[in-house]
TrEMBL record:
It holds the Pfam family AA_permease_2. This is Uncharacterized protein. It is a multi-pass membrane protein. The keyword S-adenosyl-L-methionine does not apply. One of its GO terms (cellular component) is membrane. Its main location: membrane. The keyword Iron-sulfur does not apply. It comes from Mesorhabditis spiculigera. Residues 1-21 are annotated as: Disordered.
């Protein structure tokens, strides 16, 4: 294992297995990649509460325009991530890119904050949302339960599906997890197609055009710079997930890597943009802005107005579609954890993977165990708010790393897809803007997020930089690695030198 301070250029340790250390038989192809990216971008938000943009835009027309503009913003950042992934084809996304240029203290801080709080909270919210909607679909069977018992049932359902998806991710990505993503993508598109077709039926055949004509389209528009900025900020989060494949770059077929990645990203983003726009048109056909803002679950309200008895199936559909988002979440964060462990910035056991399936089994179970623990936190959404600013700062640092690589001509993979330098500069400025906006909105929470990041940054110089480990920590690291090797049937995933892998 390489020691602390590794930059990706100084160390000369290549993977012990060819092809970025992974077997080609276990890697995903184009459709699996599109499935992961699409299921990550299109979450439950479009079904539950696609109103963040409308709250700030104020009108139907301006909110629809904001959805399209946000897609353009996402495309700029996504293109920068394509260049990063093909230039530095290592698992770990932002962590690997920031670490590659030698900003290891920052990489360490982002790694620990993201894995311990951000990733765990987001996963817990996903499987708790699954439990909530499946529990709602089963309401006739649990109507006699108290609120506390109903909550525990929802939590049990959520933990159960999380453990099932963890089990799936212990095996070959291509054999199970990627195929599940393709199925989930199809189900998600089918559910949204029902909403879109129904909405356009009422729009065209029934003449429900009152929200689009006679000045209603832009009635109530909030044209102030502050409102438009907040609308775009909300929309930017709706498109987050364009970097999903960057977390598991080594899991994509190596021979077609530079062909698959951009097509998956552009295809997934285009699909999400079209779906988001058409779904919102369908919603506005049936619901006026006031009704949409008042709804706790927009898809359910929409189905009550249009689909009759089918409305009872909507909670179950939304819940089941969370499986794809949960699968993507486990894929992303487990790979980031493994990448950090390979650089000796996390316990060695987390760098273990099964030699037959290439699955980072210990990292998967570590992420899932933390997520289940966080599901017992009462106000988990607020906890996630505390790290959102740090998450966007991580993106800004990745964009800054790309500008640094291009300006200083740092050696990268010969397979790199390169764009003009103004693109990562623009992406960097966008990311900085998305940091400033929440600071204006929630100064205390944003300040706490920066405080947590600074704490992790300082811990690097206490625990890592001296290149000395306390004997007890070294003993625990060695023993835990040996135990995990036996329990999970794994070996240490050796580090990757991208220049030697050419």
């Amino acid at each position: 294992m390489p020691r602390n301070g590794y930059t990706g250029l100084a160390d000369q340790q290549a993977a012990s297995r060819p092809g970025m250390g992974k077997s080609e038989a276990n890697k995903m192809g184009l459709f699996g990649a599109i499935g992961y990216l699409t299921c990550t971008i299109i979450g439950s938000g479009i079904f539950v509460s696609p109103k963040g943009i409308l709250e700030n835009a104020g009108s139907v027309g301006l909110s629809l325009a904001a959805w399209v503009l946000c897609a353009g913003i996402a495309l700029v950042i996504a293109m920068a991530y394509i260049e990063l992934a093909t230039s530095i084809p290592e698992c770990g996304s932002d962590f690997s890119y920031i670490n590659y240029v030698g900003w290891t203290p920052l990489a360490f801080a982002f790694l620990w904050l993201a894995n311990i709080i951000e990733g765990s909270c987001s996963c817990a919210i996903m499987f708790m949302t699954f439990g909530q909607y499946i529990g709602e679909a089963l309401r006739p069977l649990n109507d006699e339960m108290s609120d506390e018992m109903r909550f525990r049932l929802q939590q049990l359902l959520g933990v159960a599906i999380c453990l099932v998806m963890a089990w799936v991710n212990l095996f070959s990505l291509k054999k199970w997890a990627a195929k599940i993503q393709i199925v989930m993508m199809g189900m998600k598109l089918l559910a949204l197609s029902i909403i879109i077709v129904t909405g356009f039926y009422f729009l065209i055949a029934k003449g429900r055009t009152e929200n689009f004509i006679n000045g209603a389209l832009f009635n109530g528009s909030a044209w102030s710079a502050g409102n438009i900025s907040l609308a775009l900020y909300s929309g930017a989060w709706a498109y987050s997930g364009y970097d999903a494949l960057n977390y598991g770059t080594e899991e994509i077929e190596l021979q077609n890597f530079s062909w698959i990645l951009p097509r998956a990203v552009f295809g997934g983003l285009l699909l999400a943009t079209v779906i988001y726009f058409l779904a919102n048109v369908a919603y506005f056909t049936i619901l006026n802005p006031a009704q949409l803002l008042a709804s706790e679950a927009v898809a359910t309200t929409f189905s009550e107005e249009t689909l009759g008895g089918f409305k009872y199936a909507m909670p179950a559909i939304v819940g089941l579609l969370m499986i794809g988002s949960l699968n993507s979440d486990i894929f992303q964060w487990s790979r980031m954890t493994m990448a950090g462990a390979r650089k000796s910035l996390m316990p060695t056991a987390l760098a273990l993977s099964n030699p037959e399936t290439d699955a980072p089994r210990v990292s998967v179970m570590f992420h899932v165990a933390l997520s289940i623990a966080f599901s017992f936190v009462k106000d988990i959404d607020s906890l996630l708010d505390y790290v959102n600013v740090a998450g966007m700062a991580r993106v800004a640092c990745s964009m800054g790393a790309l500008v640094y690589i291009k300006y200083r001509k740092v050696p990268v993979s010969s397979r790199a897809i390169k764009y003009p330098i103004f693109l990562p500069i623009l992406a960097f400025l966008i990311a900085i803007t998305l940091i400033v906006v929440p600071f204006v909105q929630k100064l205390a929470i944003s300040g706490a997020s920066c405080g947590l990041l600074l704490t992790c940054f300082c811990l690097y110089f206490v625990l890592i930089y001296p290149n000395y480990r306390l004997p007890i920590l070294q003993w625990l690291d060695e023993k835990s690695t040996i135990i995990c090797q036996h329990v999970f049937q794994c070996v240490v995933e050796e580090d990757v030198d991208i220049l030697k892998e050419e």
